[in-house]
Amino acid sequence: MTMQTDEIAAPAQAAPAALGRAMARVPSGRAVAIVLAVCGAAVLPLVLQSFVIFQMTQVMIYALAILGLNILTGYNGQFSLGHSAFYAIGAYCAAIMMSHWGIGYVWTLPAAGALCFVVGFVFGVPSLRLQGLYLALATFALAAAMPQILKFHPFEHFTGGVQGIIIDKPDPPFGLPIDADQWLYYFTLVVLLVMFAGAASLARSRSGRAIMAIRDNPTAAAAMGINTALYKTLTFGVSAFYTGVAGALGAIVVQFVAPDSFSFFLSISFLVGLVIGGVGSIPGCIVGGFFVLFVPNIAESVSRGLAGVVYGVIMLLVIFVMPSGAAGLARYVGERAARLRRS
Amino acid sequence: MKRITRRTILAAAPGLAAVVAMPALAAGKQYGPGVTDTEIKIGNTGPYSGPASSYSAIPKSLVAYWKMINDQGGINGRKINCISYDDAYSPPKTFEMVRKLVEQDHVLCTCGTLGTPTNSAIWHYMNQKKVPQLFVATGATKWNDPKGHPWTIGWQPNYQSEGRIYATYVLREKPDAKIGVLYQNDDFGKDYLKGLTDGLGAKKSQIKVAASYETTDPTVDSQVIAMKSAGCDVFVNTAIPKFAAQAIRKAAGIGWKPLHILSSVGNSVGATLKPAGLEASKDIVSDFYLKDPTDPKWTNDSGFKWWSAFMDKYMPGADKTDVGYVIGPSFGPTLAQVLKQCGDNLTRENVMKQVASLHNFTVPMLLPGIAINTSPTDFAPVKQVQMARFDGQRWQLFGGLLKGAVG
Amino acid sequence: MQLLLQQILAGLASGAIYALMALAVVMIYLAIDHLNFAQGEMAMFSTFIAWQLIQWGMPYWAAFVIVVIVSFIGGVAIERIVFKPIHNASILAQLVAFIALFTIINSSAGQIWDFTIKSFPSPFGHKPLLSGGLIDTHQAGMIGVTIAMLGLLYLFFRGTRLGLAMRAAAANPESARLVGIRVGWMTALGWGMAAAIGAVAGMLIAPVVFLEPNMMLGVLLYGFAGAVLGGLTSPAGAVFGGFAVGIIENLAGTYVPYFGREMKLTIALVVIVAVLMVRPTGVFGRRVVSRV
Questions:
Q1: Shortest CB distance from B48 goes to which of A256, A261, A300?
Q2: ipTM of predicted complex
């Protein structure tokens, strides 16, 4: 724990100076912000009660799933209503490996991700021919079919059918003096950071630029020699990989999977989180995760019978205030601030 | 002071077993989490939003029931603070909300949490944490497991038992029947089908058509036509009111007159038979454990009058044809009885002890003669049902009370 | 053979439901160039208003006319209040607004009218039309109304200046504005018409599926699938698609052995996606050629 406190202390002292520089030099400002955020995230479980820690873990998991959708929609401009299916595949993969085969939870993540990558890649092939709303229907078909497949009688031996699968919560390893909730939080945080870093470097890489070029102008991208078909299917695979890992984490944290957990409405939630956070923005995914988890709770506390109305009105207001999501708002505020400094 | 008392007792709980067993002798009061001299906190989750929100009548009326109890002075002088959260029928959300109830709101127990997948998601957690998960609003068979899950108990007769009762009835009335089954493609539909299949035993091949539907299906016409075409002469209709009504109307429309058995999920006169057409519903057979509030024969029944007065005062404007509003105020009195029996010993252990010692207890809207009985080895409070036939106006009960064979 | 015929007829009957909804879907698509996820809920709400009016003693046809007018006004109002302020936002942001509208309407209908099913009267009655009762007068009436509405829409879009202006406004707002079309009001008008068509659809669907707040959930999905299958730019295609979905679904449920009944929705969707593979803009859809 001492290491963490040191880490926090140092940036905290440097913060005022860094803040000044951040206004002028955006990249270093961003780096400081990231370090601060990570340190803050690392301290949280030490001060919060375990229920809130669990909620924060869920926020991170949703953020990861939303990032998966973001890679497809934000980077590549493809549209999906089917990500609840990839989330479900990841979750069931983890649950089946843990409960039927007794495999450690850590190993379920790469397996779930790999399986989803393959499914996503295969699904990406037919969707090459489809665009916009037609692609939306194809992906919707996947989301609608998934609970039916999970309930399907001959698979019941594996999937537990309608009753689902209960799994045990992993204990912290190496005799760490933290409880299971705290451990899962740190575990999820590390996975999240690794995968966020992966997404960020993907966006900066040659492949990432190709993927975004396809989004901006497919014809021009093809003319420049980008293999659009390959990149589009690969993006589908990577996107499914991210959401699948999130699904596996979700299963481990909730300790239960059932077909009803992965209805089409989950896809809608991811979409809402994506738009509220900001399409194409990585930190925006976390805002999206917060929104998806907490705003329904807030809506309910306003009025139980009219929870849906309140939730809808909040969504509308958010879209009115920031039509390009939290990331768009942040960009706008940043630009205004920079202009004020200059003048 | 109270907090300290509570903690000390919790810490010393195993050692105090003898004292717990004799609450009357202990001069001091014994409180579990969520209990004070003036209040008992209990928790609940239900689908107030989302596609399953039609079930929200159950938690709504349960919360209203406690309001009535509090207006009447509470239980042993303590007001009931029932905290109910929306889970949108999503298991991860239920898990989150129940953890909130247990870890943040510190409820003594939960009551009437709704749905099979949702309760499955919290099943392990509640038993690990040793929090009473009482009277879950689902008819799955697995809730009656006092050995494996001593902190969870169901309430209603389970679906599989009902399915077996239909099988027995069919075998008696039409031994060489060709059976068509309509079921919802989820836990409760499949449980009915399993009970029916098990009940038929060697004759299960007599199920000629087992057709499922999804709740998003617009109609079940195709399924009904398939049954008629297959020559079925018995129709076991286990659908929820909307689809049950469609099936009744379609069967009448295509001139199909099988022996029609309707499950207790969809047998409300007001919610199913009236929309389907009373004439088309004639001669349908079903089973009951609750009084159908839309059946005119209960007009002068004291239990119904109590319920009706409760609804008028505490749920004004609610649709009284919705059976959900009967279920909530039936869970309520059962828990009220448990808390009464607990006296001043309101620990979670004693709550479960009292839950397992309900003897011949009845609630106003249970059918006459049906009593709630539990024991440390019997976690199925309501076990009996009675068959009835619809005469075109109201249900006519026949035969004695039947006991389910499962669980 | 008889079973086949019966299932096709039943498929036509439920296909009429999808076709009606698909028409409303295409209507909004032609007006605003994307889909309205709250369309089913708007239709459900309109139908509830009609039900309430009839409960209060109003004759069916009076309620029908009033509800169609009210829905038209309501559609225009929603466009003006909710969507005009964000018409510059991205499609995804608008999609979230549709989802918001969906939950608002669904939740308030449940709060106002409760969730128990209600029977809704049919202007055509429920008498059997063919021997065996496979199609009743209401279902035949529904098919008739669908085709009549299709004809009216065709005349409107092909034969009137207003219809032409509306198509222009949706297809190419900038150019339309240059030739003097008031694009904003065209969009609002499209919303109003879609809401009115949806209201008619809702009032004809409710007698079959029963009236309740979630009644359009499945219908919209199937209607959406039908519209996409037929081609989103073609009203005739939408009607064709709706009927096709109804028939495919019933035949899949009846004839695909082993898992047909449990997964008929899945099968129907797979068939649709397979068709889209061959014709990516639907069976009757126009290929959109974009200039680079």
A1: A300
A2: 0.87
